[in-house]
Write a structure and sequence with these properties.
By secondary structure, the protein is mainly α. It has 14 helices and no strands. The chain has helices at 5-11, 14-32, 39-64, 72-85, 95-117, 123-142, 152-159, 167-185, 187-197, 199-204, 209-235, 246-256, 268-287, 292-316. Helix 3 packs across helix 9 and helix 3 crosses helix 12 (246-256). The chain is globular. The two termini are 32 Å apart. The mean pLDDT is 88.
Amino acid sequence: MTLSPRLKSILAHRAVLTALLVVAVWIGASFVSRGFGAYGHLRYLLELAAVIGLVAIGQTFVVIAGGIDLSVAALVTVAAVALPLLSVSGDETGLVPVVGVLALTSLIGLLNGAGIAWLRVHPMIMTLAMATFLQGLLIIIAGGSAITPSNPLVSWLGSARPAGIPAGILLWIACAALALLVLHVTPFGARVYALGANELAARLSGVPVPATILAVYALSGFAAGLAGVLVLGNNGQGYVGVGDPYLLASIAAVVLGGTSIFGGRGTYAGTIPGAILLVTITALITVINASPGWRSILFGSLILALLLLSGREAARR
């Protein structure tokens, strides 16, 4: 039996291949570990992947635009630690501190973009410096203690099951649909791709380069802040370092989904199965009782291998 050219084209897409890989790993793991493929366990994996997926929304936009955001982990922590501190009396919904913390993380992302667009600081240096600054500030503010929120909206986000589906997954689905719409349908999405493909050509074509850079880093700050709110809802506590696992995970999910680390190519549709695959791999490591050290080694090796693969693809272009 021969495959039609259209079917071959679909199967050759990295996003489709990553999704098929997730399904294959799930099926294989179900034979190895009883209960791995149970509906409740797969739903739990998706709940964990939702946090990575939210962080990776902003990271996908930034990488496609030719940059990288190393401050997302610190921004997740900022949201989880600052939200309880922004609570106001008389706010029965808990919406005010959530909006406040999302505005705060978006503003920090905007500062990242300002340093990159106007001061011409390399994205890696700018966002790493911002992450270091935020980590120091968080240690001064929160110290080593955990902060417990008393926020109805955050508690609902972490525990509600509308129609049996965790609210965090529904939030991820809604944000993913919006991200795909913005990236592939709107003029802003086209400008992000143009910026990542060739900044000089984009500038000569009339793309507002500084404004686009500001927007993608502000979006990354917003997405990381939203993930921090979800982390706070899931954990019930915010503390310094709670966002640390999501830096490498967000980058790995983006690259696993087929987005070029050199910018200009990719889609969030690939990042979604990339995030799920990372969580699945982590669950498999947990099944065989691998230590956290081995998990870090695996993530680092995976990212290095994918970066090398992206480099080979770029060299062939």
